[in-house]
Amino acid sequence: MVKKTEDYIIEMENVSFSFGNLPVLDRVFFQVRRGEFLGLLGPNGSGKTTLIKCILGLVRPDEGTVRIFGKAPWDLNDDRHRIGYVPQLISVDLTFPLRAKEAVLMGRYARIGMLRRPKGSDREAARIAMERVGIADLADRPLARLSGGQRQRVFLARALANEPEILFLDEPTTSVDPTTTESFYELLGGLHREGMTIILVSHDVGVVASHVDGVACLNRGLVGHGRPEEVLGSEEMARMYGCDAVVFHHGRLPHIVVKRNDHGDS
Amino acid sequence: MEILNYTFMQRALVAGTLIGVLCAVMGVYVVLRGLSFIGAGIAHASFGGVAIGFATGVNPVWTAVIFCLGVGWSIGLLSRKGRVKEDTAVGIFFASTMALGILLIGLMKGYNQDLFGYLFGSILAVTRQDLWIILAVGLGILAVVVLFFKELLFVTFDPEMAQVGGLPAEKLYFLLLSLVALTVVISIKVVGIVLVSALLITPAAAAHQWSESFRSMMALGIFFALVSTVGGLFLSYWLDTASGATIVLLSTLIFFASAVFSPRRRRRKVSVASS
């Protein structure tokens, strides 16, 4: 287990977590390789966000070990800067008076350190991040006057401004239209080809499966982890989603391989 | 303006200016972070703190400072640990601290005229010593805000992201609560316990209607607060009305004018029409 740190950027062993009496994660084993583009899938309430929060050190598991960069998440110190996080859009107050460039610069705040002001190099990093995601022209626009897709890019730029090695995205394309979603995934694909490790949390199997190179499916415990076509066609997945047709309403893409209970493959 | 020759009026103007700036600055965080109810709860808790001061013979400002910090932290701790929801925690302290104050007053012999001043504010009775306390504590609060400007902005906007980045989000939240508690305590002599939360919330809320950046919201909030305190002071003098109430009602008028005329409202209408 000690030697694996070179290969795996994230390692979870036997992790369990519960809110009071409600089990959220049940004996999860989970690893992510450096450079992987992984979709973390599962129905609503399956523990996806909690799993991410365990890795980020926002919650502590009741049992098991979590390692990121070979360290415990609450013991990362300066290695925190190697993590980029794009939270769910709905968790953000859209009336907050903030310009896009100010929101992006926040990505540098922790790195700058307490009691210090942002320097020219920090503003430069923010500008480069905004250029990378294609919102350089929106720098002075307040958040309230951005579309959902543009706002999502602002938060991606905020994560990138800190020059991370691994990127976590929690349901990044909820409430964003299909065309915007597609170009957002192309952007992520580009980052991935440049060597970024990406973990994407979603309940939208169809859209995610066609962009990532690995999926992990969670329903309290891990029910599958591997290449999309292997995992998504499995009996476990069909059982996990049951006859719930939520996934198929998003079926704009031809790649959906999850079995529907009665009607065969869709 | 011959009224400016009166010492009490000069002191009132200085106190009003200091309190206005302070309440507006902290109010921006209160409004954006959704701490309005906590602010009101802490304000009412100060009644208990002031009563302890009267009962023990200590300057009520200091007992109120300690008491309000304790209540602010208790609300934060109770809701953070998931025992109760935040608004429930506020509700419990809101009532119990007022009750404690009333109980203590009941135990003291005779009706205390000074206590009435703390309830409804007596800006015209501000003493030189009050001014020094407001100035010292106020400058301390502003210094902390300047020092931790970017950290407080980050935890106000997105506490989870701040924590992921490695900022001590929890400690900064308690720092914010402490600053709000201190602001409330040094403001009560001017506008009173009952009305201080309005001065904390209303000018910042009015500024929120117009602002597209954090700094402009703060600057505009300060401007609105100064118009309210200084303007309200003169109005109350000319109209012979209660000063605290006049200040608060003037700021409320500014808020409604902002809500009706600000571009944000017009934009919202447009987006509703187009969707």
Secondary-structure blueprint of this entry?
The complex is a heterodimer of chains A (266) and B (275).
Chain A (H helix, E strand, L loop, with lengths): L7 E12 L2 E12 L3 E5 L6 H9 L6 E6 L14 E4 L13 H13 L7 H13 L15 H14 L4 E5 L7 H16 L3 E6 L2 H5 L4 E6 L1 E6 L1 H5 L2 H7 L4 H4 L9 E2 L3 E2 L1
Helix pairs in contact in A: 2-3, 2-4, 3-4
Chain B lengths: L6 H27 L2 H21 L3 H21 L5 H22 L5 H8 L7 H20 L1 H9 L1 H7 L3 H23 L1 H18 L3 H26 L3 H19 L1 H12 L1
Helix pairs in contact in B: 1-6, 1-9, 1-10, 1-11, 2-3, 2-4, 2-9, 2-10, 3-4, 3-9, 5-9, 6-9, 7-8, 7-9, 9-10, 10-11, 10-12, 11-12
Task: Kindly summarize this structure in a few lines.
The complex is a heterodimer of chains A (266) and B (275). Chain A is an alpha/beta fold and 266 residues long.
Which tags fit this structure?
heterodimer, A: about 270 residues, Rossmann fold, 3-stranded antiparallel β-sheet, 11 strands, about 25% strand, disordered C terminus, B: about 280 residues, mainly alpha, ABC transporter involved in vitamin B12 uptake, BtuC, 13 helices, about 0% strand, globular
Query: Average pLDDT value of chain B?
Result: 88
In CATH terms, the superfamily of chain B is ABC transporter involved in vitamin B12 uptake, BtuC
Largest interface: A-B, 35 and 26 residues
Task: Describe the sheet with the most strands of chain A.
Answer: 6 strands, mixed
**Residues in helices of chain B, as a percent range:** over 70%
